[in-house]
Design goal:
The chain is mostly helical. It is 75% helix and 0% strand. Helix 26 packs antiparallel against helix 27 and helix 52 packs antiparallel against helix 53. The longest helix has 26 residues. The termini are far apart. About 1% of the residues have low confidence.
Length: 1414
């Protein structure tokens, strides 16, 4: 394209744009760019056409391309401005405007540049942030790169503002102050918002630090990069700045710099220069009297003055004028008035203070919260509190002042040394005088620190002298006071006080003549002093003490001085104490009443008068006024600061002054049951006198009653070291042993005391109670004989107490009744003679039943049986003993409640044992319930009483039981027994959900509570979760607590589970061992429980302990026989019959056929004729009789019994099958052809009636094998083979079918078929050890020892019975393997087999065979 044509195209494009034919302009520009892609004007036209056609992004690209071709050309930038404005891309628009303004500035076009800046500022006002607006407005400032161009603008004509398009820019250039002010206000607002936002955000971060740390961090970041300091300087240096604006700017500058200063760490290099700048600003504001409150407050607080008088009062007065409404102004005004200092420099000097101390306190209370960070305020408060002798407040304020001084040093980098010293002096002085000498150690450290820098500091020297006085260092104290006297003249108050204290030191050093002279001089000096009545009184009292120390000849003169002391100041407490001592020791005659009044008056005036308090307490103790002793002791402790900080007392940093008060307080707390406070009191007392043996004893007793037994042992052993002969201490040690379950040690301790103090009532009762506790422990752990012996010993000791003492019998009868009650828990006694002896002795005291309290349950006097003594007999005696205890009379609600509760519980248990349902039982139960209610009237807050009431009503009155349980839980919500009983109540009445929640709560409180687990097990049973129930019962009996009910229930369920399991599920009789041990434990406590004895016999039968089973079952028969003779209950008769059947069966197992036959006949004799319910039992007895007769060789009798059994079995195919098989076997045993045929006939008839009776089929097959009757064998085996495998296994649990089939094949000489049958049996049930043994035996017979060894080695080794049976086969198979290593292994196996079954002949044969092959 030629140049002319190109120009024509450009002209056409421009014309199209002017005509708003944007499409034509677009096409024409595009044609040019296709020929000349870098044509600038074509790109501009192309971009404009795209913009108008709405293609904004392509337009932006076109203008960007054009700018890249010529960045200094304005057309591209101006086009880009239109693009961003049209697309509302305000940030890009602003940046482009800045580029345009820069291009105008570079070309010195001030007007265009100003117009562009105006657009930029307007844009930022409408669509920008504060920071962006500030940046835009900063273009008018002198440091802007555009300022040289803009400065050429003319001065604006404000009379005709429309005459120029750049009026605002002209005004900003020629007067930048408004611009600076607006920029400052925008930056201030932005920084304030940033600070608030960042602080709120960062405070929620993890590990953010304290709020102050977060604030400092944000302030450092924001103020460190802030432009405000420079802008403030520009405003201050601007020629148009007014005075008002200058003051406001300086105030802002001060606050900005101070905030930044406070945020900087102390080691920051910027801190010190910044602090200097702030100090200049503050000093300038104060010098010019500018009304900037912050500047004045900072100036006042940074003054480093040792005293308040060191502050410039003119500055304080000027502050009052400038800020009369500020809190600090009110405080200054009140304090200056109190000091008598004029409030303005024009006033005359005021000599008399016009304000009072109360006014100052009022001002302090009003302004304290507002002025927490003011050092000057803390100085004023410290001075005021010291003058008011409020030392506790002075300490608090001084410590706060020191913290402010430390903060000032960290904030400014400069330390206020004199102010720090002033606060330290005030703090030390307060510590010296607050509860001396409690804080003297801390005070002395501060005093030494101050005196090391200022050796002549009078306040510190005086305070140090007071500390030395309290520590008894009188000579050193006198030196301190002499040093003060040398500094101050005699006529000053401090100088006089120093002389007085020096004279007092001389009194204590026994320099009495010198002391009296000095005190008289002091008294003379005080005569001219105003407001010195207390000083005069103290001096006269000290003079009196000096004369008192001179001896009895000067006591009257001392008395006169004490009286003179009180005349000067009637509230001087030490003078009253001295007068009291005079009246009690020196007056003629002695006047104890007046002395007591003097001590009371002294103690009322000053609780620190320890001598008066002690003498007063001793007087109250002699009169047995223990409450008053407690009051005096507590006030004496309060007077020495004992209750000021309990943490110091606990931490052991507190050394008491009045140790006697702490001991008295400890005894009172101990008697009231407040054991932690008693422990604390005795500990404090022992710090004053570590060798005080009675305090160690009392401390040990307190520890013991608080349950801290280890500490009790340590304290009591320490007391025993100090006084080994103190039997009270030994008694307490024994009691701690008893509480910790070390009963033998406790018994030894009590016996050692009895050797010193024979028949000591307290020791005898403690010894008896220990024997009872020992017996209970032995009872719960299953040592029944030991427990009985312990209870007998407890009774013997208690009787010794009754014989030796005429009082406290009620407590002894509590022990006697408890011991007998626990004895009654067993049904028979090991040493019956000893038990009978103590019970007889107890009965000798029980001769009457007053008020018919026993309700007919016990006949008084009690007559024990002559033959066999039972637990029920003992329970009768226990009930009578509890009743006798009530008859003796009871002191206090605790004893009353305990007595009635024990009686009611024992009577309730006795009624359930001796009375059947009826009137007598109802009467006894009614009396038991009435007794429990009587106990509740005495002690309604005892939760166990409410639980007993609930237990008694659980079945008969569920609503009352529920109320009782809920009441018990309100008293003690953590009583697990109550929760468990409540659970059983809900369970019994079918509220299973609530029962489960109650049991769960009990388990949560104590996971080892057995009865809660029993309850959960019963719930699982009710819900049908039998596996869970069994597991829960198993866990219950494994817990440490011995609960017989859980043992018997667990055993019954285990036995039922064993009986109900199939042969494949029943792994071994060894599974019954847990039930065996649980029953054994149960029978140790209840040896005459016939049901448990019978069950134990059945369990023993299953696990192979047949002899033990016979013994336990015969015992059960004897118990049942005795019970039947007494009650003739048909239920007991049936139990007796079943037990005889069981023992008969057991005798069959031990080959006692005659005994078995006799027992079966006895059982048959007890069974009624024609009873349908007894059909099974009758069949079993006839069946057993036939078997016993068969074993005895009486075949006819056996056949007769079996035939009778068949008749008795009736339609019971299972029973008929068993009887038929045994009848057939008996007929076969006759050896006659008729008998054998009759046997076959019986079996065939049985199989016809019950085709699935595998026992009969097996017997028939066996007979066929013996008679070589192939047809009979085939018929029997075909019946067996036709049955399904699972049915065959269920009907044939011993797998007799497999054995017969294998033997049949062997009898036919078909070893292969026999081997195949054995392999099928193993494949069908790989876990059966008997099948594996049969296969291994056949393999050995086939000469395959390696395979046999592999088969037998893959079996289980978990059951010891299977191991015993298999190990011989394994040894033989290993021996036949042939190598030397196998022989050694076989030898070990053979030895193990002999050890497992030493009575088995086969084991020895295997051992001999293996040995022969080695």
């Amino acid at each position: 394209m030629s140049s002319a044509l190109l120009k024509g195209k450009l002209k056409a494009a421009r014309d199209a744009l002017n005509k708003k034919d944007f499409q034509s302009a677009h096409d024409t520009s595009l044609q040019i760019l296709e020929y000349e892609p870098e044509n600038y004007n074509a790109k501009i036209f192309y971009g404009l056409s795209l913009l108008e056609l709405g293609q904004i992004n392509q337009s932006e690209q076109a203008f960007r391309f054009a700018i890249g071709l010529n960045p200094k050309q304005l057309l591209g930038w101006q086009g880009l401005c239109k693009v961003y404005e049209r697309g509302e891309k305000w940030d890009e628009y602003a940046n482009t405007l800045l580029e345009v303004a820069t291009l105008f500035g570079n070309s010195d076009d001030a007007t265009k540049c100003a117009e562009t800046i105006q657009k930029l500022i307007d844009l930022r006002r409408e669509h920008g942030s504060r920071r962006q607006l500030c940046d835009a407005m900063s273009l008018y400032l002198p440091d802007s790169s555009l300022y040289p161009t803009l400065s050429t603008l003319p001065v604006p004509d404000f009379t005709n503002p429309t005459s120029s398009t750049t009026t605002s820019s002209q005004a900003a250039i020629h007067d930048s102050l408004p611009i600076l002010e607006e920029i400052v206000s925008l930056i201030e607002a932005d920084e304030k918002e940033t600070l608030e936002r960042e602080i709120a955000k960062r405070r929620t971060r993890l590990n953010a630090g304290s709020p102050q740390d977060v604030k400092n961090e944000v302030v450092r970041e924001v103020h460190g990069d802030s432009k405000l300091p420079l802008l403030y300087d520009e405003i201050l240096n601007h020629p148009n700045t007014s005075d008002e604006l200058r003051r406001g700017t300086e105030s802002k500058q001060l606050r900005h710099k101070r905030d930044y200063l406070l945020s900087l760490p102390i080691d920051d290099p910027k801190k010190r220069p910044l602090a200097i700048d702030i100090e200049k600003l503050v000093s300038g504001a104060v010098l010019l009297r500018l009304p900037d409150e912050l500047a004045w407050s900072v100036f006042i607080d940074k003054q480093d003055c040792e005293t308040i008088e060191g502050y410039d009062f003119d500055i304080l007065r000027q502050y009052l004028k400038l800020f009369p409404d500020e809190a600090l102004a009110r405080l200054i005004q009140t304090y200056l008035a109190y000091l008598g200092i004029p409030l303005s420099s024009e006033e005359e000097t005021v000599t008399t203070p016009s304000g009072s101390l109360d006014d100052v306190f009022g001002a302090i209370s009003e302004t304290a919260l507002e002025l927490q960070s003011s050092i000057f305020t803390r100085r004023v408060m410290t001075e005021v509190y010291l003058q008011d002798q409020d030392y506790q407040a002075a300490i608090t304020v001084s410590e706060a002042g020191l913290e402010l001084v430390n903060s000032h040093r960290e904030d400014t980098g400069s330390d206020l040394i004199l102010v720090r010293k002033a606060f330290n002096v005030a703090l030390a002085t307060s510590l010296v005088h607050l509860y001396p000498p409690k804080h003297h150690t801390r005070a002395l450290r501060i005093l030494e620190e101050v005196l090391s820098e200022d050796p002549s500091n009078v306040d510190c020297l005086m305070s140090r002298g007071y500390v030395l006085q309290r520590s008894g260092k009188w000579l050193e104290a006198a030196s301190c006071f002499s040093q003060v006297s040398g500094i101050h003249p005699e006529d000053t108050h401090v100088g006089i006080r120093a002389q007085e204290e020096h004279a007092w030191c001389e009194v204590q050093l026994n320099h009495l003549d010198k002391a009296t002279t000095e005190l008289k001089v002091v008294i003379g000096l005080l005569e001219d002093e105003e407001d010195s009545d207390e000083d005069k009184s103290r001096s006269w009292w000290r003079l009196g003490k000096a004369y008192w120390e001179m001896g009895s000849d000067h006591r009257e003169e001392a008395y006169k001085h004490f009286i003179t002391s009180l005349k000067h100041y009637p509230s001087f407490a030490p003078a009253f104490t001295s007068l009291g001592i005079y009246y009690s020791e020196a007056a003629d005659p002695l006047d104890p009443i007046r002395a007591s009044k003097c001590f009371q008056r002294a103690f009322e005036l000053d609780a620190r008068e320890g001598d008066a308090a002690r003498r007063l307490a001793e007087g109250f103790a002699e009169d047995r006024e223990w409450d008053l002793v407690d009051v005096v002791a507590n006030r004496a402790i309060e007077g020495e600061g004992g209750f000021e900080d309990s943490q110091e007392v606990i931490a052991g940093r507190y050394l008491p002054v009045n140790a006697w008060a702490w001991k008295a307080s400890g005894v009172v707390h101990l008697s009231r049951g407040n054991f932690p406070s008693a422990i604390e009191a005795f500990q404090v007392a022992l710090r004053a006198d570590p060798e005080d043996q009675p305090s160690w004893v009392r401390l040990g007793e307190s520890y013991s009653k608080a349950g801290r037994h280890v500490a009790a042992f340590k304290a009591l052993h320490r007391a025993q070291e100090l006084r080994p002969e103190d039997w009270v201490c030994t008694n307490l040690i024994g009691d701690v042993h008893r509480q910790t379950g070390r009963f033998q040690d406790a018994i030894a301790s009590f016996h050692s005391v009895l050797q010193i103090q024979p028949n000591e009532p307290g020791i005898l009762t403690s010894l008896a109670r220990t024997h009872v506790d020992l017996g209970l422990s032995e009872l719960y752990t299953g040592f029944m004989s030991r427990a009985q012996a312990s209870f007998v010993t407890a009774l013997q000791v208690s009787f010794q107490f009754l014989d030796a003492n005429s009082s406290f019998h009620s407590f002894a009868w509590k022990i006697i009744a408890d011991a007998i009650y626990y004895l009654s828990r067993v049904s028979s006694f090991t040493d019956e003679a000893a038990v009978k002896a103590v019970l007889s002795q107890a009965c000798s005291y029980l001769t009457s039943d007053l008020e018919d309290r026993l309700a007919g349950s016990v006949t008084v006097p009690i007559k024990l049986p002559d033959d066999h003594l039972t637990g029920t007999d003992a329970l009768r005696v226990a009930v009578a003993a509890y009743s006798h205890r009530i008859s003796l009379g009871l002191l206090g609600p605790a004893a009353t409640g305990s007595a009635w509760f024990d009686f009611g519980l024992a009577l309730f248990n006795l009624a359930g044992k001796i009375f059947p349902e009826g009137e007598k039982r109802d009467k006894a139960l009614k009396q038991a319930l009435a007794s429990i209610k009587e106990a509740l009237r005495a002690q309604p807050g005892e939760d166990n009483y409410w639980r007993a009431l609930g237990d008694m009503n659980l079945v008969s009155h569920p609503k009352e039981a529920q109320h009782a349980y809920i009441r018990a839980l309100e008293i003690n919500s953590k009583n697990i027994d109550v929760w468990t009983s409540f659970g059983f109540l809900c369970f019994y009445h079918d509220d299973l959900e609530l029962a489960g929640e109650a049991f769960l709560k009990a388990q949560t409180l104590d996971p080892d509570h057995t009865m809660a687990w029993v309850g959960q097990a019963l719930l699982a049973t009710r819900d049908g979760h039998h596996a869970d129930s069994r597991m829960l019962f198993e866990h219950a009996v494994s817990l440490s607590a011995d609960v017989p009910e859980a043992d018997i229930e667990f055993s019954r369920r285990e036995f039922d589970s064993y009986l109900s399991a199939t042969h494949t599920q029943r792994t071994s009789p060894n599974d019954l061992f847990p039930a065996f041990f649980a029953l054994d434990r149960y029978l140790k406590q209840r040896p005459d429980d016939a049901c448990a004895l019978h069950l134990f016999g059945l369990v023993c039968e299953r696990i192979g302990h047949v002899e033990l089973a016979i013994e336990r079952t015969e015992h059960a028969i004897a118990v049942l026989e005795a019970a039947y003779e007494e009650s003739e209950d048909p239920v007991i008769e049936r139990q007796f019959t079943i037990a005889n059947t069981t023992v008969a069966r057991l005798r069959l197992a031990v080959r006692d056929y005659e005994g078995a036959l006799g027992s079966f006949q006895s059982a048959l004799g007890l069974l009624p004729d024609g009873g349908e319910d007894d059909r099974v039992l009758r069949s079993q007895c006839l069946f057993g009789s036939g078997l016993a007769s068969f074993k005895l060789g009486a075949l006819d009798a056996a056949i007769e019994s079996f035939e009778a059994a068949l008749v008795a079995a009736g339609d019971d195919l299972h029973m008929r099958g068993h009887v038929t098989v045994l009848l057939a076997q008996t007929l076969w045993a006759t050896g006659t052809e008729e008998g054998q045929e009759a046997a076959k006939s019986q079996l065939l008839d049985c199989i016809t009636q019950d085709p699935e009776n595998l026992t009969a089929i097996n017997a028939l097959a066996g007979m066929g094998i013996l008679t070589d009757d192939d047809s009979l064998i085939d018929a029997a085996l075909s019946e067996l083979i036709s049955l399904p495998l699972d049915l065959r296994h269920r009907r044939d649990p011993r797998r007799d079918f497999s054995y017969i089939l294998t033997q049949h094949h062997l009898g036919q000489g078909n070893l292969t078929a026999a081997l195949s049958q054995a392999q099928k049996a193993v494949h069908a049930e790989p876990a059966r050890e008997d099948a594996r043994r049969a296969l291994a035996t056949l393999l050995l017979q086939c000469g395959e020892p390696a395979v046999a060894r592999a088969v037998i080695s893959q079996g289980r080794d978990s059951d010891i019975g299977d191991v015993r049976k298999s190990i011989g086969l394994r040894a033989v198979a290993t021996t036949l393997s042939g190598d030397e290593e196998s022989l050694g292994e076989a030898w070990s196996m053979a030895l193990k087999g002999v050890m497992l079954a030493p009575g088995d002949r086969k084991s020895w044969e295997v051992l001999a065979y293996v040995r022969s092959r080695r």
